[in-house]
Amino acid sequence: MTTTVPALPGFDFATRSVEIDGHTMAYVDEGPEGVSAAPPVLHVHGNPTWSFYWRSLLATLPGDGFRAIAPDHIGMGRSDKPAAADYPHTLSRRVADLTAFVDSLQLDEPLSLVVHDWGGPIGLSWAVEHLDAVDRVVILNSAAFPLPTDKRIPWTLQAARLPVVGDVAVRRFNAFSLGALVLGSGRLCVDGQARRGLLAPYDSPAHRVAVHAFVQDIPTGPDDPAHPVLVRLAERLPLLDTHPVQIHWGMKDPVFDGGILDHLVGYLPGADVHRYPDAGHYVLEDVPGEIVPQVRGFLAAGRR
């Protein structure tokens, strides 16, 4: 069954669901009258967020005539929360799940893709294998390639990858989700309403399995399961440069920093890049008033 999440201000969208290989995936699907005929925009979230992160776009894009779709990964948001033994929680499985989800929508036209954090490797891995099904792409603080040789993940993430430390800190005390609210913002912390919404689905250790698993799946070398998926994505990523791409980047992100952005632009030199010096990893939380109009205009340009 899908997870019950309390009513949240600014996020009053109906929950829809689809069965993906034995697990229920919840999603938002909002649009104007005749929603199935509206141009689709697929939003793919990362960790430890969920479709709530996209609420500013989900609320506005339907008014522009778009169908705004945002699934919750299995184990996240309002989707099923399987135990570690009952679901692989790997990047390759996430890509397979997203592929099955898109297939279930039975779309008649290409979709536009909006991704953030782990949503980048997941959504873009789908996109580079389905180029004809992609219209436009929007990327927010993410990566789509193995870790550059001159880059190391912070010690806090390295520690959270350890089974015992991660089980105590990430699952029992929700330290990763709580820490992301502080380190993920260019301000002192994500504000109260957003804070409550982002934390809502992760209210018990049993509901934080996927949060921990995402951290454990961060590839640091070729022996990690996610590494070959990212190698394949990096090889094919330049193919997306034939599509319109817009990038929004919080420059205070401690992980996806300016160096990662430069690396990404190396693959996508034709991208329209917007840098926000005072925003952090949760860039859409920090500067929605700047990003949302830019994204709406970018997507609307494809309809002219």
Task: Give a verbal description of the structure.
By secondary structure, the protein is of the alpha/beta class. The protein has one domain (16-301): Alpha/Beta hydrolase fold, catalytic domain (Rossmann fold, 3-Layer(aba) Sandwich), CATH 3.40.50. 37% of the residues lie in helices and 16% in strands. It contains 12 helices and 8 strands. It has helices spanning 55-60, 91-105, 119-128, 155-161, 163-172, 175-183, 192-199, 209-216, 227-236, 258-267, 283-286, 288-301, and strands at residues 16-20, 23-30, 40-44, 67-71, 111-117, 134-142, 245-250, 272-276. It has an 8-stranded mixed β-sheet, with helices on both faces. Helix 2 packs across helix 3 and helix 3 (119-128) crosses helix 9. The longest helix has 15 residues, at 91-105. It is globular and about 50 Å long. The protein starts with 15 loop residues before the first strand and ends with a helix. The relative contact order is 0.15.
Q: β content, as a range?
A: 15-25%
Radius of gyration: 18 Å
State the order of secondary-structure elements, H for helix, E for strand.
Answer: EEEHEHEHEHHHHHHEHEHH
**What's the CATH architecture?**
3-Layer(aba) Sandwich
Please give the alpha-carbon distance between the first and last residues.
42 Å
Considering the protein shown, what is the CATH homologous superfamily? Alpha/Beta hydrolase fold, catalytic domain
Low-confidence stretches: none
Q: Provide the domain count.
A: 1
The major β-sheet equals: 8 strands, mixed
Major sheet: arrangement of strands: 1-2-4-3-5-6-7-8
How would you sum up the global shape? globular
* CATH fold descriptor: Rossmann fold
Query: What is the residue-averaged pLDDT?
Result: 92
